[in-house]
Specification:
Blueprint: E1 5-11, E2 20-26, E3 34-44, H1 46-52, E4 72-79, E5 91-94, E6 107-111, E7 115-117, H2 124-127, H3 131-144, E8 152-155, H4 161-172, E9 176-181, H5 186-191, E10 196-199, H6 205-208, E11 212-217, H7 221-227, E12 231-239, H8 246-252, E13 255-258, H9 265-276, E14 284-289, H10 293-301, E15 308-312
Parallel strand pairs: 8-9, 8-11, 9-10, 11-12, 12-13, 14-15
Antiparallel strand pairs: 1-2, 3-4, 3-6, 3-15, 4-5, 5-7
Length: 314
């Protein structure tokens, strides 16, 4: 599709959501081991606006302008010369490499090892809300932290995008699950499998919880600091927000870890299987058209959404 244009959201400088521009840009070219996905929908995640505001520019030195968005579901438009797993018209989803242009666009080029067949039991809009959040939850709980059946895990912001998947995955793995959320989301978190839910606005979780095996921190700040005290000796605090204080962890006799999700098409295929089996569901807060990416990011940035926000592209 060399020479053809597509609609996309880009930003040419770091800043607030006003830097997001809806414009025409060239359709990306693919390498021999890549596929071109015609985007049906893209998930909106905190990392999108954090990158837009420049928080990660020392870690990920982008060349601007940049197309954000690293959650995608759509159909294969074309495949590279070395690709045999996928063909044109296949429905797929992916958490693409975050160092490259993202999915707030009509097309995206993605390496095949980052792609998996989309679950057919749900819409592509819902499928777009799965990859980044579900892979993050899986990696933090089972690869970074090695959660096992019979253990107890405390999941902060259990009604959020990552939290809703973490509750379900931990419960499927046989763990006892405690979640924190606001009062309006208590029933939702219970419906996802949580054994106990704490309203963080009216209750102090650190006074109610003790001797847990794992704390999954998706909030940071004071919540992270107070979480060290609820762990058993030798327990683990894993954060996806900011690296935990190692000295603080040592004082409490616990282990501190930080998880940053990476693309994994094979893991995503396992997650798709759980969705197909009816064991895992995605919670959608709201959908926006691609042209309203600013409003979608503004809503995500409030930190008060239930599950995921989706951008409809096709």
């Amino acid at each position: 599709m060399r020479g053809y244009l597509m609609n996309a959201i880009r930003f040419h400088s770091y800043g607030d959501s006003s830097v997001l521009k809806y414009e025409s840009v060239p359709i990306p070219e693919i390498g021999p081991g890549e596929v071109l996905i015609k985007v049906h929908a893209a998930g909106v995640n905190p990392v999108d606006w954090k990158i837009r505001e420049g928080y990660l520019k020392s870690f990920l030195p982008y060349q601007l302008p940049l197309i954000p968005g690293w959650d995608v579901a759509g159909t294969i438009a074309s495949v590279g010369a070395l690709v045999t797993r996928f063909k044109a018209s296949d429905q797929v989803f992916s958490r693409p490499e975050i160092a490259r242009n993202g999915a707030y666009a009509e097309y995206i080029a993605v390496r095949t090892d980052e792609v998996a067949p989309a679950p057919h039991s749900i819409t592509l809009e819902h499928a777009a809300g799965i990859p980044l959040a579900a892979l993050t939850a899986w990696m933090a709980l089972f690869e970074t932290s090695d959660l096992r059946a019979g253990q107890t895990v405390l999941i902060h912001a259990a009604s959020g995008g990552v939290g809703t998947f973490a509750v379900q995955l931990a419960k499927l793995a046989g763990a006892r699950v405690i979640g924190t959320t606001s009062s309006r989301n208590i029933d939702l978190v219970k419906s996802l499998g949580a054994d106990e839910v704490i309203d963080y606005r009216s209750q102090d979780f650190s006074a109610r919880v003790k001797d847990v095996d794992l704390v999954f921190d998706t909030v940071g700040g004071d919540t992270q600091t107070k979480s060290f005290g609820v762990l058993r000796k030798g327990g683990v605090l894993v954060s996806i927000v900011s690296p935990p204080d190692a000295s603080e962890a040592q004082q409490h006799g616990v282990i501190a870890k930080h998880a940053f999700v990476i693309p994994n098409g094979a893991r995503l295929q396992e997650i798709a299987g759980l969705v197909e089996a009816g064991k895992l569901k995605v919670i959608i807060e709201k959908e926006f058209p691609l042209s309203e990416a600013k409003a979608a990011q503004d809503l995500n940035q409030t930190g008060r959404t239930r599950g995921k926000i989706i951008l409809r592209v096709a």
